[in-house]
Amino acid sequence: MCPSIFGRSFSLSASKRTIAAITTSRADYGHLYWPLRDLTDRDDIELKLIALGSHLSPEFGNTIQEIEKDGFEIAARIECLLSSDSDVGMAKTIGNATLSLADLLGHMRPDLVLLIADRYEMLAPASVALALRIPIVHIEGGEITEGAIDDAVRNALTKMSHIHFTSTHGARLRLIAMGEEEWRVHRAGAPSLDHLRRTELLNREQTESSLQLDLDQPTVLVSYHPVTIAQDTLQEADALFAALETLPEQLIFCYPNADAGSRSLINRTKSFLDARRSGRVFTNLDPRTYWSLLQQVDMLIGNSSSGIMESASYSLPTVNVGIRQQGRERPMNVIDAAPSVESIVAAIENARSPQFRRSLEGMVNPYGDGHASERIVRVLTNAPPSKELLLKRQSQRILSAELVRSATKR
């Protein structure tokens, strides 16, 4: 029998399908964990995991050790991240990664290259795979973040990719509106949410012991990154830290991503906590620990995608600061704040209110149900051969703005 996707029949070869999966940081690894685990367990898939970027940086926690601790075999390690704090350093990192990946993928010649999300480093494997005629699988396309270069990176990856998995119904419709053929675009949900259903999380006592924290006191988690679309990537940070100074709660910070301005932001965070004489900053939290902490804190403040996509699964009040996540679909638990002290403080007061918290009871996370990985693996194990995947045709379907809005509200 010939399998089919969206009514298209094709035959598969008897040999294993080789998939090269790229991970560049803790951010994408936490999302990729369960798809990687499920692909590894398949007899008809040979997974080649390639780690690069901040995974190999001691400054950002040397998170490749977390991958090894999870039991994954790493097929290749690529040193490419410059120890700089500038946009030039970001651009050179892409170049370094491209050169190394050209040799690696040129020798490996996998059947598919698997990418996720929107980190700038992902432009390197996508460009190499395109030149080598290796079909690209992309997870989490179709979303909008107008305040970060991630938005352009994500859309570029979409146009270079051949199979798409989106987190929301609205994101799927956007990809089709961009001209992607419907049979290629699958709404799987965000794979990070699979942790909530499949990972054995720590309870409060275990979380406190693991992180050496007292979570009986009110606690706020701060996850804030440079605004990469701005010339001054830290232009909104003054207002954030001024607002945080007014809070009586215990403050827990996570390191930002390795972007232009991240080192300055790390130093400022450490200086802030030294002056406050309380609170903690963590270089890296593995997915299990992060999810466990997320379910124990009282509020999340920052501009991370985690506040949009993942906090909703706990109905956690979240204050989203500034323009970085502008345009992204919002769950009910997110309160937007302009990058001013007054706006941030007002949003925090709203998030604290019993009325707001009661309004979140029974809310549904629009980013998924914890079954993304099984949907992704099912499609990949039955995907057409490379020759058919590579020949992309421009879809002629035009979607109305009203249809996209309707899907976004689901």
Using the 3D structure, state the CATH architecture of the largest domain.
3-Layer(aba) Sandwich
Strand content: 15-25%
Classified in CATH, the superfamily of the largest domain is: Glycogen Phosphorylase B
State the CATH topology of the largest domain: Rossmann fold
Count of the domains:
2
Structural class: alpha/beta
3D structure, described in words:
The protein folds into two domains: 224 residues, Rossmann fold (3-Layer(aba) Sandwich), CATH 3.40.50; 158 residues, Glycogen Phosphorylase B (Rossmann fold, 3-Layer(aba) Sandwich), CATH 3.40.50. The chain contains 17 helices and 15 strands. Helix 6 links the parallel strand 8 and strand 9. Helix 4 runs parallel beside helix 5 and helix 6 runs antiparallel to helix 17. The protein is globular.
Secondary structure topology:
Elements: E1 4-5, E2 8-9, E3 17-23, H1 26-40, E4 45-52, H2 64-69, E5 74-78, H3 87-108, E6 112-116, H4 123-131, E7 136-139, H5 150-160, E8 163-166, H6 169-177, E9 185-187, H7 194-198, H8 204-211, E10 219-223, H9 237-244, E11 250-254, H10 262-276, E12 280-282, H11 287-294, E13 299-302, H12 306-309, E14 318-321, E15 334-337, H13 341-352, H14 354-359, H15 372-381, H16 386-390, H17 401-408
Parallel strand pairs: 3-4, 3-6, 4-5, 6-7, 7-8, 8-9, 10-11, 10-13, 11-12, 13-14, 14-15
Antiparallel strand pairs: 1-2
Helix pairs in contact: 1-15, 3-4, 4-5, 6-17, 9-13
